[in-house]
Amino acid sequence: MLEDNPRDAELIQELLEADHFVCEVTRAQTRAEFVAGLENAGINLILADYKLPSFDGLTALKLALHARADLPFIFVSGTLGEEVAIDAVKIGATDYVVKSRLSRLVPSVQRALREARERAERKKAEEAFRRSEMYLAEAQRLSHTGSFGWDPASGKIYWSDETYRIFECEPTIEPTVQLALDRTHPDDRMRLRQILDCASTERSEFTAEHRLLMANGSVKYVRAVAHPSTGEDPESFIFVGAITDITERKRGEEERDRLRQIEADLAHMNRVGMMGELAASLAHEIKQPIAAAAINAMSCTQWLCGDAPDVTQASKSASAMIAAVTRAGGIIDRVSSLYRRGTPARELVDLNEIVQEISVLLGNTADRNAVSIRTDLDPALPTTTADRVQLQQVLMNLMLNGIEAMHDTGGKLTVASKRTEDSQLLISVSDMGIGLSIDEAERIFEAFFTTKPRGTGMGLSISRRIIASHGGYLWASPNAGRGATFQFTLPVEETASSPSAV
Ligand SMILES: Nc1ncnc2c1ncn2[C@@H]1O[C@H](COP(=O)(O)OP(=O)(O)O)[C@@H](O)[C@H]1O
Ligand SMILES: [Mg+2]
Description:
The chain is α+β, with helices and mostly antiparallel strands. Helix content is about 50%, strand content about 20%. It is built from 15 helices and 15 strands. The strands form four sheets. It has a five-stranded antiparallel β-sheet, sandwiched between helices. The chain is elongated and about 150 Å long. The two termini are about 85 Å apart. The relative contact order is 0.05. Bound molecules: adenosine-5'-diphosphate (ADP) and magnesium ion.
């Protein structure tokens, strides 16, 4: 309260208190006192006289407006003329009350305080709103997700800043469906148009994944989702949605696909590379049933062409011929799967059966290297869910490596299967060859690591990957005596992991 007259000051306070205002009055009479009072954060209201011995109300008003624009400022004065009062309100006073009509004081103070409170609340709400707007804009920028609104009836479209950035449009440009379509890659335009047409006629939510072709020729992948939202008028609706720039994710996926393909190609090359080794064994394996078929064909002809043709005997020979040829076909089938570039498939497999198959196929290679293959298989071995061709590939890699390690010396290659105590399948391949040095034991699993003049160094890295993709582990250890042992585990139960294209 800026007031030099103590009696007036008392009167004003009494009036307010009579109306249940709880007042704590800080009285000022000089400029210094007034300025000091302005610094008091607890002040809610300024009541000011107009004329004081050493100070004046107008200057006080200007000081208050400068320092505390939020504080209501009411002139309470005896000398305030109408004109001056209006001027004072013009420059920012909240109200004025003449001392001869102090009955106006209480309503004036009440209104001033109410309005100040409302202003403060509005300001707080605006600040909260601005803050949430800022957070939203930041979140949109960080997640590369812009928002949009679209009124299909009027064609009006709203874009957030991030949506403008995704479309690389100046924020001054008014967005339209046509603009969005123009920015869309020509190959995706038709599809997008259909999606939008369909969604707006059926009032249904939509998702569109399409490309944008930017002015500089670069391509962006975006994904838009929107749903219809009804306003007050249930007849009208707008789409509210979000559009995300998914270019990085798409590029990542493409890169992963590319790597997966390279891996699959390498695995395939590895399999085809091994086929050379198998050729001799295969020829031998297939020759037997074919020779048997030829003999049966011969006797069949004899039974038919004699003086008294014996159809019963002839058909017996023909049946034997069919059996022999079918057997040859079966051998080719089993091996040709290694040539094919099939997608991985899971089935129930009997590992013992695979070990035996590969042992037969590698028989010739083993013979040439003076290696004898021994198997030590657990007859009660449970089956596992796995990709048969991939497991054949692993065994062939390990067994070929073992044979190659005994190239100079010959020896015994032992393949064993058993069930471990923690219920896994364990296959081990042991040789009596050159063995492994400590620092080689891990490096041999690196792709392209080889110590062989014509090696590729792919066998072990591919094998380890295959076993890992089946939920197992493949490792090597030096033998106590000569040679090395390679072992891998496989879960008995079906694994949740999906097969990968190794
Ligand atoms: N049974 C083994 N005994 C000793 N060394 C081995 C054995 N198996 C693999 N290695 C070593 O691991 C390397 C990598 O094997 P691998 O990945 O199958 O490729 P590659 O057989 O084409 O060399 C071999 O060159 C060899 O040095
Ligand atoms: Mg190898």
